Amino acid sequence: MNKTLIIIKREYLSRVKKKSFLLVTFLMPILFIGLYAAIIVLTMKSFENTHATVYVYDHGQDGVDELLENSKNLTFIKGEDDLAGRLAKLHSSKDNTGVLIISDDFYNSKSVEYISSNKPNVTIQSEIKKNLRKIVREKQYADLDIDLEKIQQVDDQVYLSAKEINLEGEAQDSHTNVAMFLAMGLSALVYIALMLYGTQVLRGVIEEKTNRIVEVIISSVKPFELMMGKIVGIALVGLTQFLLWIVLSIGLFTVGTTLFLNPESFQSLETAQMSSSMDSQMDTLPENIQEIIQAIDFPMILGSFALFFIGGYLLYSALFAAIGSAVDNETEANQFTLPVTMPLLLAYVLSFGVLVNDPHGPIAVWLSMIPLTSPIAMMVRIAFGVPIWEIAVSLTLLILGFILTTWIAGKIYRVGILMYGKKASFKEIFKWLKYNK
Predict the structure, then answer these.
(1) Which residues in 108-144 are b (16+ Cβ under 10 Å) and which e?
(2) Any bridge partners for residue 164, and if so which?
(3) Which GO terms describe its molecular function (predicted)?
(4) 137-181, pLDDT tens digit by residue?
(5) Residue 148 C-beta-side C-alpha neighbours within 13 Å
(6) CA distance 249 to 272
(7) Of 186, 189, 192, 218, which is closest to residue 205 (Cα–Cα)?
(8) Would you say 55 and 86 are in contact if contact means Cβ atoms under 8 Å apart?
């Protein structure tokens, strides 16, 4: 046991003290927050830069060009000059300019042609179609002698308030959208973490085997103790990194909200009207956040995340350690890692569709019980609310799966760690499992 603790300490400290660990740990939250901020800013900027000038050439006699309405994205100009000349100018134009050609039987064919100076983006095309659909719709209403003003007074908007029954038997907002995004985020986080730190175990074993360090180590340490020491040591590295990410993310989020959502910070930059608008938004913001916190059991989610991450990591790390001991390099390891990680990849892919759409269905339940898929599947389901007994059964099966996997991996590790030069295969590994000594 003492030797295992020494190996755990060595694996932990050797990785935590690396500059790469410190850089990734402290820069990752900043990079993620900066990435999302850049996406939002660039997306808003792209919508601002989608304005196009459209020259309209109407070949009909119905005056469709007179009915087109300008918007913030489009400016329609009636084409008075020659169409061929305008198209010739488009070829050399660097501006977002286009030509809309309306056929003489537009109301029957409902087809137009749009030619632009470059590839027209989706927003421009959508705006043009929306404008023309409105014109066609109003023409058909007029032909059917339907009062357009009465049609516009019809309000078919339905506001659905999704609620769920809590333990006290009271209905409360369920905030399904928040749960869905939380589930998808957790599934991605678990998948990345298991693959990242499990692969570190694989590489560590291959490196020690290739450099013949392992021959010296196992002269005083049993192979199983060595395997468990590497697995637990790297697991502690992962947990340390995650805890630091959470603390740093919360700190950055708090600073960001204080800086950008504090009305006092806007008073020197914005007008009084903007400040009053910001005050009204701030009045409702804490209530919305409080409702979301009350509707979603964050302690249960975070606690379950830690348990399923540890269980999933131990299970897959044991498999990765066995693979690393059976091969001499990472290229050979690829033929074994793909079958091992397929269940995890399956659960991750299904989390974006099946598990989110039907978190309490039979497929989701079974995937959350199978040890190879439960670390991701159960985390997706927990965001939507899962009975405690199902979580307990899933964790129990995960622990039993880890024990079985560790026993199998130990038998492979014991033989494979000293095998050099001979290319391993599934048939050869199966023989190693039969060895009693």
Answers:
(1) eeeebeeebbeebbeebeebbeebbeebeeeeeeeee
(2) 172
(3) ABC-type transporter activity
(4) 888 888 888 887 787 788 777 877 666 665 555 555 555 666 677
(5) 10
(6) 32
(7) 218
(8) yes
